[in-house]
Amino acid sequence: GDSVTQMEGPVTLSEEAFLTINCTYTATGYPSLFWYVQYPGEGLQLLLKATKADDKGSNKGFEATYRKETTSFHLEKGSVQVSDSAVYFCALIMNYGGSQGNLIFGKGTKLSVKP
Amino acid sequence: NAGVTQTPKFQVLKTGQSMTLQCAQDMNHNSMYWYRQDPGMGLRLIYYSASEGTTDKGEVPNGYNVSRLNKREFSLRLESAAPSQTSVYFCASRIRDREENTIYFGEGSWLTVV
User: A95–B101: do the CB atoms touch at under 8 Å?
Assistant: First the structure.
């Protein structure tokens, strides 16, 4: 079935370091891809998304490019801040076919940024 | 714009008690969802409703029931709570449109069963 695999954490970085969180997916159809962020004690917020191959989603300095050839959607940020400390979830939703309509999540990657 | 609103935010139950988690969305979305979040497991789908009047089981439906009361509201009921149902529950909604495929989440309900 459809699935998402993301790198396990926790990831600990110093402020201003470069961030990459890897995410790969398996899908029988044509998914849209998402990154959600969850700050401590809060719900999930959409960080960015991409709906088709080669699309780049971006928000708040974070970027991810939909790579169909490698079935990947890696999250990157050039210079992290302490306020970026959170859990990041990669997810997909099928546009049609497969598990249409249901958001399938990776297990989350906890990021801690030290001053 | 409230988005997705779920209540209560925190609840402690005794084993065997029942309760209902309420969820409402004001975005005129067709589909609604209930997820649970457990450490190391990510989010798992409990039930979903593709449209008013329909509900379907997700990955982990056992011990839960749902009701899609109308287009706005989708409730989750625990008939006889068990400690294994201690979790954070998220309601979500989505408009069924190929161009707008984003799912929006409520702020979560922290449930502890003792």
Answer: yes
Contact assessment for residue B89 and residue B35, using Cβ atoms and an 8 Å cutoff? yes
Nearest CA in chain B to A103: B103
* pLDDT digits (tens), chain A, 115 positions: 789 999 888 999 999 999 999 999 998 878 899 999 999 888 899 999 998 899 999 999 999 999 999 999 999 999 999 999 999 999 998 766 545 567 889 999 999 999 9
What is the length of chain B? 114
Sequence length of chain A is: 115
Select the residue of A51, A101, A108 nearest B31 (Cβ to Cβ): A101
Contact residues for B39 (Cβ-Cβ < 8 A; gap 6+): none
β A3-6/A31-38 pair status: unpaired
Q: How confident is the model at residue B111 (pLDDT cuts 50, 70, 90)?
A: very high
CA distance A98 to A95: 9
The bridge status of strand A11-14 relative to strand A109-114 is: parallel
Instruction: Say how far apart CA A19 and CA B95 lie, in whole Å.
Output: 32
CA angle A63, A69, A75 (to 5 degrees): 20
From B48, B104, B107, residue closest to A42, measured CB to CB: B107
